[in-house]
Amino acid sequence: MKYLLLLTDGMADHKYDILDGKTVLQYAHTPNIDKLAPLSLLGMARTVPEGYPPGSDVANLAVMGYDPRCYYTGRSPLEAVSLGVAMGDQDLSLRCNLVTLSAEENYADKVMLDYSAGEISSAESAQLIEAVKSALGSEELNFHAGISYRHLLLWKNALGKSLQLTPPHDISDRKIGDYLPQGSDSQVLLQLMQASQAVLAKHPVNLARIEKGLNPANSIWLWGEGSRPAMDSFASKYGLQGSVVCAVDLVKGLGICAGLTPVKVEGATGAIKTNFAGKARAALDELKRGQDFVYLHIESPDEAGHQGDMKAKIWAVEQIDQHVLGLILDEMEDFDDLRLLIMPDHPTPITIKTHSADPVPFMLYDKNHPRTSSAREFNEITAGEGIFFEDGFTLMDYFINGSD
Question: Relative to the CA of 355, which of 123, 166, 172, 308 has its CA 20 to 30 Å away?
């Protein structure tokens, strides 16, 4: 048996009057998804346990079959794994975003204009992080370049520091004063964020971006702290060898921690526009070369949700249907046995521009054991009429081992 999990990050959403009272998933043209709906098990899963932040770290842990209440140690350590950054037992890692803040003189009065600095390219951001590293880094504080706006700070021997940090994508269009680092040990991080402005302001990369009318990366933003993770392997849990196809360091790092083989896809960006077909091709090739399981992650709907761009989110869902699921269906006959699970990790509603902890819809299709369902399409409404997994992490066991 082959297993393919198509993770459509942040795809779930609310109903909108502008969409005739439909959700994005309902409104989007998704003939391939809806073709499978009458033959699939539909339902909902709570991927974010009560009391946990509705981040992609917590939610993807659950989707991959790991109870966040047992395995969650923070977001950035998973990204550190992806980047190959070695963490000691007493080290703390933090996510380091390149962001665009407004121009007020007082740092606390600035507004979070863009948590991604215009989805800055990796080539540009690598130069900026190198400049920050040269000016502000030390033996204790080490900066590491990642992908696009997503980077890392490793704080040596800082485990147990008192910190309360806020994700920048949670405060789009808000004044940052109430969301600056808090806690008795937070001053060093606030000083780094403030000092980064002088490093970045006149950097040639930012001057060129301003000249082109693009958002400059004019500050770093530190958040997502955590310690080195320890996880059981996916193979030991389920007896399957697998791969993870993803352009986002967080999910790639999670896969590596679970013993999944990371697969790089040319043109995969972790942004709204990405190589949809290339990622589907890579996932299918991994199954054909002998892997039992592939975790195929598409970030596009989540990024559109964070940017509050409804047209882009509809477009992203339609691209997934056409170029990802379309290719999977075209090559379905190449597999004797194949189970397919399609679901987001969490909702990223357009109206709030960030994640919510609401349950998410899923669709489980078994090629050799199709179901008979009254559902004519897959969305939050039809899935809400199906089976419900209160502990979302148990859905993976059902996917792998569940009865027909």
Answer: 123
Last residue in a domain, options 210, 226, 242: 226
Percentage of residues of the chain with pLDDT beyond 70: 100
Do 64 and 188 fall within a single domain? Answer: no
pLDDT for position 217: 98
Q: Same structural domain for residues 260 and 367?
A: yes
What is the phi-psi region of residue 317: left when phi exceeds 0, alpha when psi lies from -120 to 50, beta otherwise? alpha
pLDDT number for residue 403: 54
Q: Are 346 and 296 spatial neighbours (Cβ–Cβ below 8 Å)?
A: no
Give pLDDT tens digits for 208-225.
999 999 999 999 999 999
Q: What is the DSSP secondary structure assignment for residue 143, as one 8-state letter?
A: E
- Of 292, 286, 234, nearest in space to 264 by CA: 286
Alpha-carbon torsion, ordered 369, 371, 377, 378, to 10 deg: -70
**Domain enclosing residue 171, as ranges:** 90-226
